[in-house]
Amino acid sequence: MKIGELAQRAGVSVRALRYYEEQGLLSPERTPSGQRRYTEDTVEVVRLFQQFYAAGLSSRAIAALLPCVNNGRTTATQRRMLRAERDRLADRVEEMTHTLRRLDQLITAADNHGGTAHSHSSRTATSTVAS
Q1: Which three-class secondary structure state does DSSP give residue 80?
Q2: Long-range contacts made by residues 65-70, C-beta under 8 angstroms, separation at least 24?
Q3: For FRET with 9, which of 38, 82, 116, 126 sits at 20 to 30 Å CA-CA?
């Protein structure tokens, strides 16, 4: 498939695909006229890249993990990196879960007060969020 079709199907821009190629993450075949050609499997690989980027992995980290994605085999170094990234994400999930609980508390408090905020309860809510 051509680059535009891949971009549409994977939900990314053509520019992002070119960036992935510059970073060594994608290496499409080329037609005799120089057009990029991608396989069907590339759609899922690009979606995985998007998930990795959204989770905070760098291009360098993704490139280091690419052999794992391509063949399912890992070196000891790659497994350490996978575990470290997993632990980092687990910490972020825990922090976000804590923040979600705090927001739920604020929403419940606001609902219980009929949505009206008094200056005292506003200060209390702000200090609750900050702690």
Answers
A1: helix
A2: 66/25, 69/45
A3: 82
CA distance 35 to 1: 10
The model scores a pTM over 0.70: no
DSSP output for 59-71? HHHHHHHHHHHHH
Banded pLDDT at 13 (limits 50, 70, 90): very high
pLDDT interval class at 72 (50, 70, 90):
confident
| 96, amino acid identity | M
Phi first, then psi: give them for residue 35, nearest 5 degrees.
-75, 145
Query: What does each C-alpha distance from 101 to 31, 98, 122 come to in angstroms?
Result: 53, 5, 18
